[in-house]
Automatic annotation (TrEMBL):
It comes from Streptomyces avermitilis. The chain crosses the membrane at residues 30-53, 65-85, 106-127, 133-159, 166-188. Coiled coil: none annotated. The keyword Cell membrane applies. It comes from the Bacteria. Residues 1-20 are annotated as: Disordered. GO terms for cellular component: plasma membrane. This is Amino acid permease/ SLC12A domain-containing protein. It is found in: Cell membrane. The keyword Cell membrane applies. It is a multi-pass membrane protein. The lineage of its organism: Bacteria, Bacillati, Actinomycetota, Actinomycetes, Kitasatosporales. Keywords: Cell membrane, Membrane, Transmembrane, Transmembrane helix. GO terms for molecular function: transmembrane transporter activity.
Length: 211
């Protein structure tokens, strides 16, 4: 199976030293540490924890914990698929290269369009969620604060990979510290037991309104 998915090897011809008109190779600008920081920053669920989960608790109630647990199991299976396909198909095309090799170019383009939609939707959602936390501090309209977050993220994206690796590394440390502080404070001041996480209750659903 592995041999059938690997591209056919072509002989490499020794063309001698490269001239100014010859092809230029990409420079390796990040090492193991930088690559690890970028990868961990992509897979850490800090943005989901602070932006999406509060809304889930408001709509799903205590069933949110069970939902996250089921989603985590699915993510583990997807991670194994990514690991296997990434090893069998050593290409920089990501999901497009994987799906195109396994299911054809049409399926690959559909995945590409889906990834494009995700890239267009997720950053604004995270920016607006970040703006909700910044608005009480900077005293700005959440829309303006969200636009500022998007602008800063765009400017950071214009930097080289080495700079982005350290920027994302710094924010990764801040995310882990913030998540740890929230977890410690939350569990240290809990009002109900762990069984409430699977009790399937929504806040205010059992309340009665008196005239």
């Amino acid at each position: 199976m592995t041999d059938t998915l690997r591209p056919a090897e072509t002989p490499v011809l020794d063309a001698g030293p490269l001239t100014s008109d010859g092809p230029q190779k990409l420079k390796r600008s990040i090492g193991i540490v930088g690559g690890t920081l970028l990868t961990l920053s992509c897979v850490t669920p800090a943005s989901t924890l602070f932006v999406v989960v509060p809304d889930l608790f408001g709509s799903l109630g205590t069933a949110t914990a069970l939902t996250i647990a089921i989603g985590s199991l699915l993510c583990i299976a997807v991670a194994f698929c990514y690991s296997e396909l990434g090893t069998l198909i050593p290409s920089a095309g990501g999901e497009y290269a994987m799906v195109s090799t396994m299911a054809g170019r049409l399926a690959g383009w559909l995945v590409f369009v889906l990834s494009l939609l995700v890239v267009m939707i997720v950053p604004p959602v995270i920016a607006m969620g970040t703006a909700d936390y910044l608005a009480p501090i900077v005293h700005l309209d959440p829309a303006v604060a969200g636009a500022g977050v998007m602008l800063l993220a765009t400017l950071a994206g214009l930097l080289d990979l080495r700079a982005n690796a350290w920027i994302t590394g710094v924010f990764l440390v801040l995310e882990v510290i913030a998540a740890a502080v929230v977890a410690v404070l939350g569990f240290a001041h809990s009002e109900r037991g762990a069984g409430s996480l699977v009790s399937m209750q929504v806040a205010g659903s059992g309340a009665t309104r008196t005239p």
